[in-house]
Amino acid sequence: MISGKFAITIHILTLLTKFPNDFLSSEFIAGSINLNPVLVRKEIANLKAHHIVESKEGKNGGTKLAVNPSNITLKEIFGMTFDTINLGYAKNTPNPDCPVGKKINQNLGLLYADINQKISLQLDDITLEDFSIQF
Amino acid sequence: MISGKFAITIHILTLLTKFPNDFLSSEFIAGSINLNPVLVRKEIANLKAHHIVESKEGKNGGTKLAVNPSNITLKEIFGMTFDTINLGYAKNTPNPDCPVGKKINQNLGLLYADINQKISLQLDDITLEDFSIQF
DNA sequence: TCATACTGTAATAAAATATGTTACAAATGT
DNA sequence: ACATTTGTAACATATTTTATTACAGTATGA
């Protein structure tokens, strides 16, 4: 379930933070990530749905932040790109006639929920500004 | 990068904990996970390499725990099935001529290292016995 | 000693997911 | 008008994960 979604989204947002006054084109952003511009636009569509960025179509169009980078944390960005973090489940439904098979996913779910909570606390302490300032 | 490896391995180990005196066959285990027995044997090969289980070939063969389930934690199991957990990296090498592209993977790496440490601490508090006793 | 039931492992196939490409309508600045 | 850019769909390719088949090797016990 883990893809480059979070990394790409953070990369986009870091660039937008670095150029707060410009509408950056998907082509420009894609050049920094080394990724297809269409995929950049898809991630941006997701960010727009969460009202984190705003875009302008047409010539000289592009995308810029719609929020102050000190007012958004990595937890929120994480929430936009992942359901939850987990260590995976077996693909097929385990055997419900086995006591272990019957409860394994439930028990893994509890474990993963704990993990998520810890990670969320940690990510909630880091703002986009904190992250971007490292560059 | 996340597959069902951890979940499958935990499932196997929970079964072995529940039947500490038996050599369980890959077929039996596969029936509980609802997974191909060859894949079960592959995960068992990994556990054997880490000296967590022992196998017996031939008729009435199978696999049993080689350690006391109260002496092994989920952290160790995690370490056998994952390199590290992370929220992913973009697939392609980012543009080294961009200040953000140049450092993005390094900075994500630092973030992910922190996350891993937290998860490890948490998983190190849960033994295989603790986990198995829930079933 | 022979049939049976396992492990171990390789080779290959299929399925699922992720990434990439092409295409083009719609919007907007100059 | 023209150039440039977003938005989005449709399709193609690549990668990863899971499944299957096959079979040599090993132990058990009738």
Can you walk me through this structure?
Chains A, B: This is Transcriptional regulator. Chains A, B: Pfam families: Rrf2. Chains A, B: One of its GO terms (molecular function) is DNA-binding transcription factor activity. Chains A, B: One of its GO terms (cellular component) is cytosol. Two copies of one chain form a homodimer. By secondary structure, chain A is mainly α. Chain A has one domain (5-132): Winged helix-like DNA-binding domain superfamily/Winged helix DNA-binding domain (Arc Repressor Mutant, subunit A, Orthogonal Bundle). Chain A has six helices and two strands; from the N terminus they run αααββααα. Chain A starts with a helix and ends with a helix. The model of chain A has no long low-confidence stretch (mean pLDDT 94). The interface between A and B is large, with 51 and 51 residues. Chain A binds a DNA duplex (30 and 30 nucleotides) through helix 3.
